[in-house]
Amino acid sequence: MKKLIKIVVFLAILIVVGFKSVYFRKLDEMQVSAGSGLDVAAYTANYFKELNPLLDTSVNVVTLYQALKNKDLSLVKSKGHSLSLGSLKYIMVSGQGIVAKVDSGSIIVNAINNEMVEPVYIETEFIFGNAIRDASGIVKLSDFTNTTDLNNVSSEINKTIRETVVKPFVSTVQKGDTISFNGAIEINEKYLNVSDLQVMPIRLK
Amino acid sequence: MKTLNNTISVEKLRPLIALFLLCVVLSLLSDKFLTVNNAWNVMRQISVNICISVGMTLIVLTSGIDLSVGSVLALCGAVTAGLLKNGIPIEATNTYVGFTLLGAILAGLVVGGLLGFFNGWVITKFKVPPFVATLAMLTIARGLTMLFTKGFPISGLGKEFAFIGTGWFWGMPIPVWISLIVIIIAFWLTTRTKIGRYIYAIGGNEKAAKLSGINIKKVKITVYVIAGVLAAVGGIMVTSRLDSAQPNAGMSFELDSIAAVVIGGTSLSGGRGAILGTVLGAIIIGVLNNGLVLLNVSPFWQQVVKGFVILLAVIIDKANSKAE
């Protein structure tokens, strides 16, 4: 008898816990209401709208390279941005120059400013990471409730750049062309290596 | 007799003395160490290690070991997060099975228990050494975590779930409450119940325990199930604290928990040790980690220091066993 009571009590608890644990819905209804999170495409479109006027305030890439070669990080500190606490900073740059080489993954440009010349690598294949997202300082962590949305925005920005900026440009650019560009650079303040710097393009003309 | 009693009490007090000395040294070296905020920070950090170390203690007391706790922790955290966020969509019947907070947590705990059961079953049924069986589970559970998460974190789990890892209740962080409850239950289990006595008996002398009628298989499987469930508790706490289930969560947690057990005075050969010793061991590891961070010691050196502390604890354990 005692055993029977035990079994009944156990089953009763199991049923109550079960009812409190799971619920059932129609799948198609759930899929309609699931799109309630951040609209990444709209956020990205708005990002580019806000970014355009800021491009004119970018640091000249030759000036930046010269400063970094002298271990002068003042430009990075004043114009760079980052959403994380680490030593990585992202900064918007601009420049003009003559295309020295068109590789499968990058364009090498001899950027000129006040008679000074610096070779600059403009990435055209692997547009990745958070450089373009973070360099402008427009994106704020407080805009997001989770890191997935933040990462998705980064992916969407990079995708837009790949398709609307890089693709049409790469098909026409040739060695010897004079071009102007805007982009973003990732700089590690702690382990500075100027020869490793690559420009993630934002605007190419 | 008097000398023997003194030896025993010194042996029991050794982790406490070590902790006291560690605290004194760190408070002299860093003015940030001895602050209320830092104390809560350390307690919150060690809560996860306490949970998995308590399970590990029970296993080590039976002269076993569980190398899979870190991976089990990751899988249970991922399952909880995945079910809470995405539920189970069944396209064939156009049904969505959603999980409430309670349901997702229970599912995580059940997965932990099942993995623990599998460990215990393999060890007792096929006589596979615990080291090998749980090493296999380490890989299996990590692989399953990667499959379940597709290698990406599962984030945005809601405020209610985040409360478990970041909330406060009666002036104390929730993870500290959880670890306190785990300690009390484990202490009661090992000191006041039949199964507690069986655990010590099996670790002390398995053959004698078997001859005296103890169901070795049942006790061992139970112990691995408990350890699995406690790893799941740890996984839920980690996931909640980060508001994200990371596929690589819990990496090398098994080492920290074994370290806590050994430093706390539990013999790796089984049969000797106590839950409170493990708690002290976990606090020592936590304080050591915190102190090294506050002193700005490189993470690489932190590993080296921790390794030497574990080595020292094992040498002391061996010396004690020899003396006995």
TrEMBL record, chain A:
<protein>
    <submittedName>
        <fullName>DUF2291 family protein</fullName>
    </submittedName>
</protein>
<dbReference type="InterPro" id="IPR014582">
    <property type="entry name" value="UCP033535_lipo"/>
</dbReference>
<dbReference type="InterPro" id="IPR036215">
    <property type="entry name" value="TM0957-like_sf"/>
</dbReference>
<dbReference type="Pfam" id="PF10054">
    <property type="entry name" value="DUF2291"/>
</dbReference>
Automatic annotation (TrEMBL), chain B:
<keyword id="KW-1003">Cell membrane</keyword>
<dbReference type="InterPro" id="IPR001851">
    <property type="entry name" value="ABC_transp_permease"/>
</dbReference>
<protein>
    <submittedName>
        <fullName>Ribose ABC transporter permease</fullName>
    </submittedName>
</protein>
<keyword id="KW-0812">Transmembrane</keyword>
<feature type="transmembrane region" description="Helical">
    <location>
        <begin position="130"/>
        <end position="148"/>
    </location>
</feature>
<feature type="transmembrane region" description="Helical">
    <location>
        <begin position="168"/>
        <end position="189"/>
    </location>
</feature>
<keyword id="KW-1133">Transmembrane helix</keyword>
<feature type="transmembrane region" description="Helical">
    <location>
        <begin position="46"/>
        <end position="65"/>
    </location>
</feature>
<feature type="transmembrane region" description="Helical">
    <location>
        <begin position="275"/>
        <end position="294"/>
    </location>
</feature>
<dbReference type="Pfam" id="PF02653">
    <property type="entry name" value="BPD_transp_2"/>
</dbReference>
<keyword id="KW-0472">Membrane</keyword>
<feature type="transmembrane region" description="Helical">
    <location>
        <begin position="221"/>
        <end position="239"/>
    </location>
</feature>
<feature type="transmembrane region" description="Helical">
    <location>
        <begin position="96"/>
        <end position="118"/>
    </location>
</feature>
